[in-house]
Write a structure and sequence with these properties.
Distance between the termini: 42 Å
Number of domains: 1
Number of helices: 0
Mean pLDDT: 93
CATH superfamily: TolB, C-terminal domain
Largest sheet: 4 strands, antiparallel
Structural class: mainly beta
Shape: globular
Radius of gyration: 16 Å
Helix content: under 10%
Low-confidence stretches: none
CATH class: Mainly Beta
Strand order of the largest sheet: 1-2-3-4
Order of helices and strands: EEEEEEEEEEEEEEE
């Protein structure tokens, strides 16, 4: 068992509300969203101290505000991050720490219109570069076609938290399979929802 030491805190061997984790199967490297510390950390195998690769003190002011779900962009040069408390999804370029807002408001405004988000908790993409966002505060999943900033609701209903099969209640995690099926952690309904061939 590999246990990080340090407990709660801001040190390189500590976390505050870690939310999401990715492991490189080839290298064993872990990348972790340290949500409460507004940073993304990288840990090499058996290391106890991590490396800040996004957020933290790398940029002032720090554009990360409660980073939660994320993925490594297919190019490997950046991370796409659900920036929860700024109500947007950003792309963080690792080589120069620059940031591009991909979805939601650049100034952090929340809302339930097609262009706004509310406390997004997770993000993923498909082979075409389309973004799928768990728009947690709006009880919906938003699809942003590649290069577009106007979203399409593909699951749930904005502002409606319900338990019927077509509704969601604070979805917090999403995953696509190779067939285009979307799996949703429908958190406050205590269930996992599968939406079939959502790309079609």
């Amino acid at each position: 068992m590999w246990v990080f030491s340090g407990g709660h805190g801001f040190g390189l061997d500590q976390f505050s509300i870690p939310t999401s984790i990715i492991r490189n199967r080839r290298t064993g490297v872990l990348i972790i969203s340290d949500t409460g510390n507004d940073r993304i950390m990288l840990y090499f195998p058996v290391a106890t101290d991590g490396i800040v690769i996004a957020g933290g003190n790398l940029v002032n002011p720090n554009p990360l505000n409660g980073p939660a779900g994320f993925y490594v962009h297919p190019t490997g040069e950046s991370l796409v991050i659900a920036n929860t408390f700024s109500h947007n999804v950003i792309r963080w370029f690792l080589n120069d720490n620059t940031v591009t807002v991909l979805a939601g408001d650049i100034n952090g405004e929340a809302g339930d219109t097609p262009v706004l988000l509310s406390f997004p908790k997770d993000v993923t993409s498909d082979s075409l570069g389309n973004l799928y966002v768990a728009d947690t505060g709006n009880n919906r999943i938003q699809l942003f076609k590649a290069g577009q900033t106007v979203g399409i609701t593909i699951a749930g209903v904005a502002g409606l938290a319900d338990a019927d099969p077509s509704s969601l209640r604070r979805p917090t995690a999403i995953q696509l399979d190779d067939q285009g099926n979307l799996y949703v952690a429908d958190t406050d309904n205590n269930r996992i929802q599968k939406f079939t061939c959502i790309q079609n």
